[in-house]
Automatic annotation (TrEMBL):
Species of the source: Enterococcus ratti
Protein name, as recorded: YhdH/YhfP family quinone oxidoreductase
Alphabetized Pfam families for the sequence: ADH_N, ADH_zinc_N
Annotated InterPro entries: Acrylyl-CoA_reductase_AcuI (IPR014188), ADH-like_C (IPR013149), ADH-like_N (IPR013154), ER (IPR020843), GroES-like_sf (IPR011032), NAD(P)-bd_dom_sf (IPR036291), Zn-ADH-like_protein (IPR051397)
PANTHER family in the cross-refs: ACRYLYL-COA REDUCTASE ACUI-RELATED (PTHR43677:SF1), SHORT-CHAIN DEHYDROGENASE/REDUCTASE (PTHR43677)
Membrane-spanning intervals of the chain: 123-145, 151-173
């Protein structure tokens, strides 16, 4: 094995990103060396490559919170050379070198065997976004969401939002409303399964009241901030909202009235530290849904990462961006 390429973030002498060459990693007990085929670009990855992103604490660091690839060497008895695997979450790309590298060593405890009916490419089209979207959908289903209920998805043109639209459509939900500021996203979101697409200003009342008209049953919120504040008073009795992102800000200005007078619930969703025993069934469920090839996908190389990351931070990114790490075809 010769030197290999990796996309790295460093703060010496000043904050910068660069494509570097590295030598073969040395494995420790229970570690596995992966030849990476694909990674992807998530909002957290964009923050990791931003000086003020607040994600990475120790430099240098290889970002990329997701990866899929092939085992080439293993000191974990559960994996052998040739196994196809994927990894999302844990400390990957944040406290542990991540997926923007042609090879990476990772703890065997983090690795998921590639599910049946899913390719390495499809696994990263889904990635953390797909995993998070299904966690949100499952949480709402467990709360009692029915196929005829009215559901709002915020940030619908992003990775989590658009994947959630596809999941709900595949499951047979008939009233999915997508919120997106991007007019150009309307057609492809409807093609994906949204029954209606609104710009936020078109959907919300002019003034947010502590309790508004009960016009929706469930919310799958990917952005946080003001949009969630405006949606909570509109949720009907016994409804719920899941929250999985903060691109719209970390502040939530709400009253207790929707919770104590309409019995609604706000359900937080974390995808990073989901217990291992729950991950494999969720990934198999994603594979069985067969939605990866329906999503809007842009495929790039390392060299194109800075441009895409700037688009994401500027709110100009749509769908999913796949990073072809291993020159796969």
């Amino acid at each position: 094995m010769n030197n290999f390429k990796a996309f790295q973030v460093n703060n010496v002498p000043t904050f910068h990103t660069a494509i570097i060459e590295q030598g073969k990693p040395i494995l420790s007990t229970n570690e596995v060396l992966i030849k990476i085929a694909y990674s992807d670009v998530n909002y957290k990855d964009a923050l990791a490559t931003s000086k003020s992103g607040g994600v990475i604490r120790s430099y240098p660091m290889t970002p990329g919170i997701d990866l899929s690839g092939t085992v080439v060497e293993s000191l974990d008895t559960r994996f052998t050379a040739g196994d196809l695997v994927l990894l999302t979450g844990y400390g990957l790309g944040v406290t542990h070198p991540g997926g923007y590298s042609q090879y990476q060593k990772v703890p065997g405890d983090w690795l998921i065997p590639l599910p049946k009916n899913l390719s390495l490419r499809q696994a990263m089209i889904l990635g953390t976004a797909g995993f998070t979207a299904l966690l949100c959908v499952n949480a709402l289903l467990n709360h009692g969401m029915k196929k005829t209920d009215k559901i709002v998805i915020t940030g619908a043109s992003g990775g989590v939002g658009s994947t959630a639209v596809a999941i709900l459509h595949k499951l047979g939900f008939s009233s999915v409303m997508a919120l997106s500021r991007k007019k150009e996203a309307s057609k492809w979101l409807k093609d994906l399964g949204a029954n209606a697409v609104y710009a936020p200003h078109e959907f919300f009342p002019e003034k947010t009241k502590p309790l508004g008209k009960q016009q929706i049953n469930y919310v799958l919120d990917t952005v946080g901030g003001e949009q969630l504040t405006q949606l909570l008073p509109l949720i009907a009795y016994d409804g719920a909202a899941t929250l999985c992102g903060n691109a719209g800000g970390i502040q939530l200005t709400a009253t207790v009235l929707p919770f104590i007078l309409r019995n609604i619930q706000l359900i937080g969703i974390d995808s990073v530290n989901v217990p291992y025993e729950k991950r494999c069934p969720i990934w198999q469920q994603l594979a069985d849904l067969s939605i990866a090839d329906e999503l809007l996908v842009n495929e790039i190389t390392f060299e194109q990462l800075p441009t895409v990351i700037q688009q994401l931070l500027a709110g100009k990114h749509q769908g999913r961006t796949l990073v072809n790490v291993g020159d796969e075809k």
